[in-house]
Every structure is written in C-alpha cells, then in structure tokens.
C-alpha cells in the first residue's frame, strides 16, 4: 500500500489555531481515507466505520490541542509552538501533537476538568511523553477491517 501524504502543521499555541488544525485534520482524514478506499477497490464514499474513526480521531486530537493551549504555556507571557502531524501507513492512522511548553500534572482533587487524557486513551492508543523540551502525545488507530475480511461471529 502507498502511504498517503502526511499532514504537517505548526503554529503559535493559541485558541484560534485549535479550530484551524482540527478542520485541516478533518479534511486530511477524509482525503486519506478516501484514497485508501480507492486503493483497495472499495467505494470512495466513507463507510460508517471510517467516518466514525475520523470523528474519534478529530475529537481526541482536538482534546490534545486544547491541552496545549490551556496548560503547556500557563503563566508565560507569550505562548510557544504547537505542532500536529498525521499520517496513514500500514492501515494505521498516527497523529502526533507536540508542544515546547511545560508539563502540568493533572489535579488530584475533585474537579470538572482533567478527563482529556482518559478521553484520548479511550478513543485511540494514546501515549503521552513529557520532558524539559515539551510534551508529545502520539495517538494511533488501526483502520477497521472491511466487512468481507472480518471473521464470522459465532452464536
């Protein structure tokens, strides 16, 4: 399989960039998944499984980007940089959100916040790495098997 052209974005970490990155990712996912459909000889229209996968990836990525804006540069006069990379290879979509800010540990007391990492992990295979140079969230999601490739369910 030929990998789709990766998406690579970088900008100052600010609220308007989250929406712009999210829309760019949604367009890229649509293009990449439609190209994958065509490559395997399927209809170019996205199946419900692929549309749901795209929705999950956009939601998880949006949460990672919001975390950058809300937490990575808290207490500094000017925000740093955030980046988004996405690629599709070997039937796995991988999305990487990174910043050059500082990790802020989740609060331990009662709060209405703090569910972002759990959400990302529920929607994808998400790994969070943080260090002195910033935080990187890597999210992976395999494409669903086509219906004709799925094992027959046992009753």
What portion of residues is helical? 25-40%
Class by alpha and beta content = alpha+beta
Provide the residue-averaged pLDDT. Answer: 86
The biggest sheet amounts to:
5 strands, antiparallel
Quaternary arrangement of the chains shown? single chain
Write the layout of secondary structure elements.
Elements: E1 7-12, H1 15-39, H2 48-72, E2 81-89, E3 92-99, H3 116-123, E4 125-131, E5 134-142
Antiparallel strand pairs: 1-2, 2-3, 3-5, 4-5
Helix pairs in contact: 1-2, 2-3
Describe this structure in words.
- The structure is a single chain.
- The chain is of the alpha+beta class.
- The chain is built from 3 helices and 5 strands.
- A 5-stranded antiparallel sheet has the order 1-2-3-5-4, with helices on one face.
- Helix 1 runs antiparallel to helix 2.
- The mean pLDDT is 86.
- GO terms for molecular function: ATP binding.
- This is ATP-binding protein.
List keywords for this structure.
alpha+beta; nucleotide-binding; HATPase_C_sf; 5-stranded antiparallel sheet; about 160 residues; elongated; kinase; transferase
Briefly summarize what is shown.
The chain is α+β, with helices and mostly antiparallel strands and 155 residues long. 37% of the residues lie in helices and 25% in strands. Helix 1 packs antiparallel against helix 2.
